[in-house]
Design brief:
With about 375 residues, this protein is α/β, with parallel strands linked by helices. It is built from 14 helices and 15 strands. Strand 13 and strand 14 (about 325-330) form a beta hairpin.
Length: about 375
């Protein structure tokens, strides 16, 4: 069988590599062994790892969950060095070199920073170095935070146009009910498409839908599969399970890609940059965008929501309120309020200037 080399993003949760006392270096060594085995046969591997805050708790002498943001950031600063040093030691056993990469949300929102991050990661991979990525909790504030590293891993996978995202969980995969409370809960081995019914079934309990729980993993899986990336959720506590799925055997839950990969720019628009507003379109404009491959003109916009400037990202929704596209606007909300419903030939007369005939050009738009 011909082995296809892949670019793989592997997300490791803190529940896998930490204990109440700190880092579990035995598990980190085991994962380093398995990831190195994938690297040895030619897969380009990137690790997104949680665990800095948990590792820092011990240094600060704190027990239990940390709610105070200042203490959490201090714990992250104290623990990040321990986390990376643990990976450094573990991967060196297999003659692998690593690099620490700390990211904040604005890396994905600002196009130039996005490109810089992508170029850095690709250069590291070209040098056969394994990047260890984490959110920069020390400086992140609410509007810059990803929310959890599942989402960060999906964004990194999109940034690199990866072939596969592997999420290591503390359960075997996605079940149709909470296996901790329902003995008849069934493991779902393959998911063709993440439906609202599936999301509801998976989130039937608080325990499975907490922060960083199965709910966030489904969000990450949905983001990645809609960008043409296959996703596996597997139990990171099972020895050898990571290499198992790359040997053609089944383990956990595999999510099939639901679309072809976006080009890099369209992927950034779809998943990288945050939306600042929403444009509600009439039926004709919605159809022209979805079926006709057209740009969005002011005449097709019924209403505007949000505050945004020229170059910001906004969602386009149909009259029923369903998101159908996302794109970069050529006019701010104050300017758009004056020209919606009007023809392009009237823009300059209304505003006294005209940036473009299109509110969103097709080249700056991604269909959702």
């Amino acid at each position: 069988m011909h082995l296809i080399m892949e670019t793989i993003v592997i997300k490791i949760g803190s529940s896998i590599i930490t204990t109440p006392e700190g880092l579990n270096e035995t598990v980190i060594n085991r994962l380093a062994r398995d990831i190195s085995a994938l690297h040895d046969i030619g897969h380009q591997t990137v690790v997104v790892s949680s665990g800095a805050v948990a590792a820092g708790r011990g240094k600060l002498g704190i027990e239990g969950q940390i709610n105070d943001i200042n203490i959490k950031q201090a714990a992250a600063a104290a623990g990040q060095s321990s986390l990376v040093w643990a990976y450094e030691k573990a991967f060196s056993l297999y003659n692998k070199k690593i690099a620490q990469v700390l990211l904040t949300r604005d890396v994905f929102s600002v196009r130039q920073r996005y490109l810089n991050a992508r170029n850095t990661l690709r250069t590291l991979l070209d040098f056969h170095i394994i990047p260890i990525i984490n959110e920069n909790d020390t400086v992140s504030i609410d509007e810059l935070k990803f929310g959890d590293n599942d989402r960060l891993a999906a964004l990194v996978a999109s940034l690199l146009t990866a072939d596969r995202l592997v999420i290591l969980s503390d359960v075997d995969g996605l079940y149709d009910a909470d296996p901790g409370k329902n003995e008849s809960a069934r493991l779902i081995s393959v998911v063709e498409k993440i439906t609202p019914e599936l999301e509801k079934a998976a989130c039937g309990t608080v325990s499975i839908c907490g922060t960083g729980g199965m709910s966030s993993k489904l969000v990450a899986a949905k983001m990645a599969t809609e960008d043409g990336i296959a996703v596996n959720i597997i139990n990171g506590n099972s020895d050898g399970v990571l290499t198992t799925i790359f040997n053609g055997s089944e383990a956990g839950t595999r999510f099939e890609p639901t679309a072809k990969k976006y080009c890099a720019r369209k992927g950034w628009i779809a998943f990288g940059i945050r939306s600042k507003g929403r444009l509600t379109l009439d039926d004709g404009a919605a159809k022209a965008i979805l079926s006709g491959g057209k740009s969005l003109l002011p005449s097709g916009i019924k209403s505007i929501h949000g505050v945004f400037e020229r170059g910001d990202a906004v969602y386009c929704v149909n009259p029923a309120g369903k998101q159908i596209a996302k794109g970069l606007v050529n006019y701010g909300n104050a300017e758009l309020l004056k020209i919606i419903g009007h023809k392009t030939s009237q823009i300059e007369g209304i505003l006294g200037f005209k940036y473009s005939d299109e509110v969103i050009h097709r080249d700056n738009m991604t269909i959702l």
